[in-house]
Write a structure and sequence with these properties.
Number of strands: 8
Shape: globular
Number of helices: 9
Largest sheet: 8 strands, parallel, barrel
Strand order of the largest sheet: 1-2-3-4-5-6-7-8
Order of helices and strands: EHEHEHEHHEEHEHEHH
C-alpha cells in the first residue's frame, strides 16, 4: 500500500500550524511539516517568521511544556529546508518527529554531512528515521553515496522548493524509476506536484510515499482522496 503523507505549508504562526494540522485529524497518520528559514529557500515558516528559536511557542516545546500540535494523534516528519539542519540538529530533535529530512543542496560540505550521518547515535537511529532530499536538477550519481546512510529518500518534484502549488517536473518519473531499479527496497518519497494525474505514474515508477499538499487541502473529500492514493 502506498503511504500518503500530508504536507503542511505555508504557515506563518504556531496557531496557523495548529489549525492546518487540526484539519487533518482522522485523514492521515503522518504529517510532514516544512521548516523554511528564508536562507536556504526564499520562503519562511514558523518559527522563523516569529523570531526563530526564541519564539515563545517554540521555546515551550523546547522546555517540554507542550509538543507539536496534536502530537499524540500524528507521526511527524520534518522537512528541514534550512541552512542549519546539521548545526542545530539537537534543537530539531526536541520537536519529537519520527522522521527528519535533510536537503543535500543545503550542505556546505558533503564530507562533513557524511560524517554527521555516520556519527548519529544508534539509540537515536532506533527511534528516528533519517532521509535525504534533492532537487530534480541534481545528478543522481551524487546522491548514491549517501543512500546507504539513510532510511529513505525524498525526490523533490521541482527545483522550486518551499513554495506551495508547484507543478511536477517530468524528469522526476525517470529519476524515481532509476532509484527503484538500483535500490529495490529503498523507500522513495515524492514531494511537490503530487496530484490525481501524477500520482499513478509516480507509483508505477517506484514511489512508495506520496507527499500531498495543495491537492489534499483543496479536496472536498480528503479521506476519499487519501484512500485512492493508498490503493494505487
Amino acid at each position: 500500500m502506498t503511504e500518503v503523507i500530508a504536507s503542511v505549508l505555508p504557515f506563518k504562526t504556531f496557531e496557523e500550524l495548529k489549525n492546518k494540522v487540526g484539519a487533518l485529524r482522522g485523514v492521515v497518520k503522518t504529517i510532514q511539516i516544512d521548516f523554511c528559514d528564508g536562507v536556504f529557500v526564499p520562503s519562511q515558516t514558523w518559527p522563523f517568521t516569529q523570531g526563530g528559536f526564541d519564539d515563545y511557542e517554540f521555546q515551550k516545546i523546547m522546555n517540554e511544556e507542550q509538543g507539536l500540535p496534536f502530537w499524540d494523534e500524528f507521526d511527524f516528519e520534518l522537512d528541514l529546508m534550512v541552512a542549519d539542519a546539521v548545526e542545530n540538529f539537537d534543537i530539531y530533535m526536541k520537536l519529537g518527529a519520527k522522521r527528519m529530512i535533510f536537503h543535500l543542496e543545503a550542505m556546505e560540505s558533503w564530507e562533513d554531512f557524511r560524517n554527521f550521518l555516520e556519527g548519529i547515535d544508534l539509540y537515536i537511529r532506533d527511534i528516528v528515521q533519517f532521509g535525504i532530499a534533492f532537487k530534480p536538477g541534481m545528478p543522481l550519481e551524487k546522491v548514491f553515496p549517501f543512500i546507504p546512510l539513510v532510511d529513505f529518500v525524498q525526490c523533490m518534484g521541482n527545483d522550486k522548493i518551499g513554495i506551495s502549488g508547484v507543478t511536477l517536473d517530468e524528469k522526476v518519473y525517470d529519476r524515481v524509476a532509476l532509484l527503484r531499479e538500483k535500490y529495490p527496497e529503498l523507500p522513495i518519497e515524492v514531494d511537490i506536484g503530487v496530484n490525481e494525474q501524477t500520482a499513478p505514474r509516480l507509483v508505477s515508477a517506484g514511489a512508495t510515499k506520496l507527499i500531498t499538499g495543495s491537492v489534499l487541502f483543496n479536496s472536498y473529500d480528503k479521506i476519499g482522496l487519501v484512500e485512492k492514493f493508498q490503493n494505487l
